[in-house]
Amino acid sequence: MLAYYFPPVGGAGVQRTLKFVRYLVPLGWDATVVSTRSRAYGARDETLLAEVPSTTRVIRTAALPVARYLAFALHRLRLKRVRAFLLWPDGGLGWMPFAFLAAMRAVRRDRPDVLFSTSAPYGAHLVALLVARLTGLPWVADFRDEWAANPYLVGQPRLLAGLSERAERAITRGATKVVVAGDYFRLAGLARDDPRRTEIVNGVDQADLERTSGGPPPDRFVLAHVGSIYDIRDPIPALRALASLVTRGVVDVDQVEVRLVGNVWIPGFAPPAGIPVTATGYVSHEEAIEEMVSATVLLLYIAPGDLAPSGKLFEYLASGRPVLCLAPDENLASRLVREWGAGIVAAPGDEGAIEEALTVLWLRWREDGLPLQNEVRARVFERYSRQAGAARLASVLEDARLG
């Protein structure tokens, strides 16, 4: 398994891969993971190490900090185009040669049945492509996000966009099987009805929720956004709407609190005045789950036009707390919140509708405290468990092995 993000590295990209490794073991699959040393990536979560199976061998390679230093220097110099060319395909550039050598050694030693790679970074697939060609191993490529069709890479130079598409096409043609985290993914060289393609969405591990002990405070309305805030995931419209309700006296400022749980990557990010805001910074996954179950309402913001539902959606639903879902109608998050009665949906750019949604949630809280949504919890555990995702992957691996 080629996985740049793996414990003790933290962050959202770790969870899918870690849970695959953990829950494949009872299904007869043991993994040798080629990853990076944790200091090559900023976020660390030591608590996740306890979930790595004892049978899993983890090879942690060096990774030249090329991307980090170049990105910083060229950003300061405002050389965006130069930065894009030097860092292609992505931030895993400095890891790729070390990952290739480690993977080749592991293949010779372990003689594995299947090669597995997961992106982002997309360089993991490029390494796997070369290893598969040299060894003849069947190969499963897992896309956690789109690459060439990723809407947030639209601004890259045209030459790089074409290069990414050609590289993606080589990956999809060379892979024995391709796994995608969403059925809407557009991958060059791979039709949606290609029999080699399998959808395995992100999910939730019930065991993570069973370790929590908190609950929302009875005397405060806590609106929590759990997850990193960055240019395309900026919940400021909801904060402005809440501040407006406080100013107009609809919401009592002495009974409300906003919690921003996670990194804030937007330079100069400043919540509106007039509402109490607590920013925790990065927390462990265990603490993030505790924050979810301790919130009155969970805030999910997904930009207009974005079809990615966010990996935290399933943990939000499993927490049993109502969700203020600010997402496009066609997004899976909006569909599930509406169909399951798990909260209120509003368009991410419509602050009037957001104010209305917050008002409804506030009045419901004043009336009944917004009790735990046990039916929603049961549904998400039934349909989107990490064990079910691992079982689907085990079937894909077996099919790849048998050719």
Short note summarizing the structure:
The protein has helices at 12-24, 66-76, 80-87, 96-110, 123-135, 158-174, 206-210, 236-247, 285-293, 313-319, 332-339, 351-368, 374-383, 386-402, and strands at residues 32-36, 57-61, 115-119, 139-143, 177-180, 197-199, 221-226, 256-261, 277-281, 297-301, 323-326, 343-346. The protein contains 14 helices and twelve strands.
Structure description:
The protein contains 14 helices and twelve strands. α8 (236-247) packs across α12 (351-368). The strands form three sheets. A six-stranded parallel sheet has the order 9-8-7-10-11-12, sandwiched between helices. Strands 3-4-5-6 form a four-stranded parallel sheet, sandwiched between helices. The chain has two domains: 12-203 and 385-402, Rossmann fold (3-Layer(aba) Sandwich); 207-383, Rossmann fold. Helix content is 40%, strand content 14%. The chain has 403 residues and is α/β, with parallel strands linked by helices. The chain is globular and about 70 Å long.
